[in-house]
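Page header: ASSEMBLY MODEL / two components / 926 residues total.
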Amino acid sequence: MPQRAGKFHAKLVQRQGQRTALTFATAPQISWTLHRLYPLLLICDGILSNILWCCDDVCLPFIHSVLLVLSTNILTVQDGASFARRAVESWVGTMSCVLLLLSFVYYISSVLHELNADEPPTLEDIIVMVETVVYKLEVIRDDLREPLKMSSQELVTVLVFITPVHWLLMKYLFSSNDYLVFLVLFCSVYHSSWCQCTLRLLWRSLYVRQLLSLVCGRTRDAGGIGQAAFYVVNNSGIQVPRYTSPLEDLSSSSFSNRVRKALDGVYDPDLVSKHSSTPVSAKVVEFRIDENQRKWPLDGWTQNMLPYERSKFTASQDPASAECSSPWKFQESLGREWCWLDDAWKPEPWLYCDTHWIARGENDSLDCYTRRRMWKRRAFQCSH
Amino acid sequence: MTEMPVTRGRRDSIIGGFMARKYANKNHAVPEEDDDSTFKRVSNRDLIHGVASSFFEAAYQRLKSSKASDGITIDEDYDQFAQFVPSESSDGFWKDENFRQEYELGSELGSSQTSEPEKMAEKPKSERTRGTQEHFIDILLDKMISTILPENFPEREHFSQRLNDPDRKRRQKLSATILASNLKILTTKLGSIFELQDSVIRLVAWRNPSGTITMLIMVTMICFNPIYLAVIPLLYVLYGLMVPGYMHRHPPRRTNFLSRKQYGRSLIVSLTSGGKRTHNYLNEDIREYDYNLEADPQDVKKAHNIKQSMEFVVNLRDLQNSMSAMVSLSNSIERFVYGTAGFKDEHRSTVLFLAGLGALLLSGIISPFINWSALLAALAWLSMVAIHPKVRPKLAQVVKKEQLDRGKEALKRTERYDVILDEQPEVRVIEIFEIFKKEALSNNWSFVKYSSSVFDPRDSFRKAQVLPPGVDELECVCPPLTWSFDANSVWEIDYNVGGWSTERCLNLQIDDQFLVDDAFKRRRLTRKVLRYASPARKPSYK
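Prediction written out in full:
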């Protein structure tokens, strides 16, 4: 037990195998409906197991897929092939199609027959079966989630990109028959854990990710967006008094000091009374630039990013995370109309994110693969 | 336990008897591990390993002590053991007349020709040194070695060459401990191989029908596109080894809910099932619903240990069985190589050769017109269907036994009358010397013996003052082994005495048909012998 080991280890939460008796807690109508539903659930479960390749006998889904592939022979027309070959192929195709249908019918009838011969299921059995079916459906949805996450714009890009590739492939490399076979095989294998594992392993490769981002049009934006994305407006038109005699330079430190005071709502009676001043409307903004880093297993946090994702410094306010130079370079490139309100760039603490830059929290943890922090500096611009 | 793989079935009873007797006499001789005080503390697994290693340890000690005490060479050791071996193979196959070699000594010509006094003297001595104070393991070991070592020593040069080969010398020496530890390690690791063997058996017996069909589909694919033969191993490495490893580390969320009963059957399975399947192929990635919430890690460890030791014993048994299977397989291969292919039965071998040649020519001629892929695939499917447990009896009904018998009869007739064995036999001449002795008083000669030896004054038997080996009557002279007399020839006296005496460099007096010296005279008789064929080949260790 845990005490013996010296350290105390907590236990994982387990799903409770036993549940309270449902028989008395359920309305008879619901029980009856569930009971009528049971054969359908069983058949659904069988089909789903076949699609997921998770039945007891993994060879069966394989045989079914082979039969399915052979059945596609009926659909295809091969002009070049000899008559005998075509005859054999369409015979085999028809036979496998018939066998597939027969085995489906046989499966259904055997389920019904065995259910009749067996004692009726308890409510718990039915609930377990419902849960199994729901679980399997969820697994299928999870498998499909990533591909279906594409936006419609990306989908259009993919279609535009893929159509000529398809055309070339079918024209010079594959026959339509091969293509159909490949498609059928891929669809029938897609939900097997082998295929899913293969996809996940493929996803580990940088080149695959790069290719996919290229196909989907998810390339890194090379700036080009107006400076609107770089700041947030704190105050669009604050009235700041200005000395008229001598005409005060708007970029001077005393003026920016006054802007700061005006922002804080500090009233300067001295200024108002002594000098007849004309107020100037100033637009105060805060420039925000994100610094991004990614965690690498061997090097730790570095500024090495994936080629298709955001760069080292990005504009925080831009939804597409446009590239941007470092804050210190950025301030040099800024136009003369902006005057700094703060003395220096101030960083916020690191925000740790998962690999898709979705924030997780302020501490580095196992599921954090990226982090970003925001550099802020306020500036203003006077409108005349 | 561990010694059984080496001994063969017939010997089990002998060893069993030995063990029973020795156990009855010497209770103190049992290995340490069986001691009551330590017994309770050692686990099942340790015990098995301990017994196995102690046996080999004892064997090793015995080998070491025997080396230290008499320092015999391997040849002497071999000689010693060779004499203890009772005539090993009662197997009639190797006792066949056709396997009798020229160098094999017939029992009737016997040991009088080549007597080895040292050897005869050593036998009782060595038996004495072995004495009565033996451990039963020693006897077992002796028995083991005597089964391993061959009966005779046909190719000494070859053997010694192998021993002196520098390459071999650089390798590890024979050591019982290394052997034992290797066996121990191998036994624990062979489980997957035996599992594979079992699964192949299940496949062939249609006890896993969907697996069999999958295999057939793969075979068909290979037939139509042989490059799959290279692809499938790679596929296995990727999806049989690597992906399961990945799945083990990063399990995909695929829980298998245990339901009370599995409803529904597959048409394919129920159509083709050949028997109850005994093994479930559970995917590595399907985690079974964990109902065992209160499992103590200590219990889990214990269960693991028990499972491991069980596996060890099962593996050992499987190893033994596969060894016996290998022995019988090699026996039948030998039977083919040295029997059927070695022209042991000349009729049968000739028919076989001609049939093979015909098939070769035929296939060479018609092969361009055959779609081999389709044929091979169809053959694979047909043969697998034919050995299906449900189809086989029906097939047997169709192919009636009488038909088979008639076919065999026809084959026999073909062998008997369509194959003509009328080659000219090998002809050689044998000689025998008829030796006469001069009587002491008169000048008469009296007959002494028919002998192969000339018995001239330089003869070793003459010097030892013994008569040469021979017989008293001409009828008792037999032809050399594997040869037979030409029935149409008779013993002829060689009148060319000068010829045969000068060939043997004998400068003795010639008297008509006799060659005469001071005490004996002899004449040479010759006769034609025939041999149809030399004895068939035979492996060196038989």
